[in-house]
Amino acid sequence: MKSAAVVNFAPEKGSVEIREIEQPTIGDEDVLLEVANVGVCGSDLHQWTADHSWPVNYPVVLGHEFGGHIIALGGKVKGWKEGDRVVSETAAVIDVNNPMSRIGLYNLDPTRKGFGYGVNGAMTKYVRVPARCLHKVPDQIPFEHACLTEPCCVAYSAVVENTGLKPGDRVIVLGPGTIGILCAAMARLCGAQVAIVGLEADRHRLDIAKQYGCEAIIGDATEWAFKRDGLGADCVIDAAGASITLKIAMQLVRPNGKITKVGWGPQPLGFNLDPLVQKNIRLQGSFSHNWPMWERVLALLASGQLDVKPIIGGVWPVTEWHTAFEKMHKGEIVKSVLKPV
To answer: Are 184 and 203 contacting, i.e. CB atoms less than 8 angstroms apart?
Structure first.
């Protein structure tokens, strides 16, 4: 049985197209998932525009933000059954004996391969998923929302685990894309006072961020950063990825403050890092997530404490992937969701 798939077939710009692919076969510890919805990530766009900074196993089916129903189980799979509503983590291939994996940080295993770049992802009807990646989706969460568990976990990892915000902290988020807005929303859940910063072209996305109780700033956030006591923000979260935003973060953060960088960007810096030393700033990278974070985020989605509906700009069949990609790439919407056909 063949299905339409969004395939990134080469490293050159624009090398994405619809192809018909065979239904995958599964191993003893895998399940076959019928995909209900899959979110379009900024990394999918980066592979499409060929400005990514990670290795890709071409050709590969894109898509790592997904959920659906189990339709077949491998012979050694326990605890799951056909028909279960699930979402999947992204670490499709890991070395269970790697020191990082053995302490539960398999997301930091250097040999890790993820869906959508290392192995075939979910922008198609069926995807092979290791059972260890699965999480049960509560019935009250529609799949159009559940498929965004993954970017919510990116935000949870950055804001809660790696930054450790406290109620009352003043936090600036640079970049009103999906991750930036979700980081801002997560910071609000932690009790922080949050401003999110973008450009004039981001006005629509900044308006969406306001729905999460954030102050939206176009351009210079200096006044907001220094408003409380003249020293700067407690934390700056760089969700933009461009090199210049790290320089801006160093200017806006207070002495002994924190900068958490979650946005990707391959450009060289080209500026002095001495302010990092002079201000005694903690610079923290944040990559991916692991099992307990997924359980926490699903609980937040199920309870309604975290609502992803405001960021969803539309749902398109996978055959209309180009429209969905373009709308995100141009900044017309925050998040596109695809539906297999």
So the answer is: no
Strand ranges (E), 74-154: 85-88, 126-130, 134-136
Class of domain 155-285: alpha beta
Q: Are 317 and 339 in contact (CB under 8 A)?
A: yes
Structure confidence at residue 266 (pLDDT)? 80
Find the mean pLDDT for residues 220-232.
Answer: 98
Whether residue 137 has pLDDT greater than 90: yes
Best CATH choice for the domain 2-148+308-339 from the list 3.40.50.150, 3.90.180.10, 3.40.50.300, 3.30.413.10? 3.90.180.10
Predicted TM-score (pTM) of this structure: 0.97
Each domain of the chain, given as residue ranges in start order, spans: 2-148+308-339, 155-285
pLDDT tens figures, 32-91: 999 999 999 999 999 999 999 899 999 999 999 999 999 999 999 999 999 999 999 999
Q: How far apart are the first and last CA of the chain?
A: 13
Cα(238)–Cα(285) distance, rounded to whole angstroms? 10
Residue 185: strand, helix, or coil? helix
Q: Which two tokens stand for residue 230?
A: 């003249």
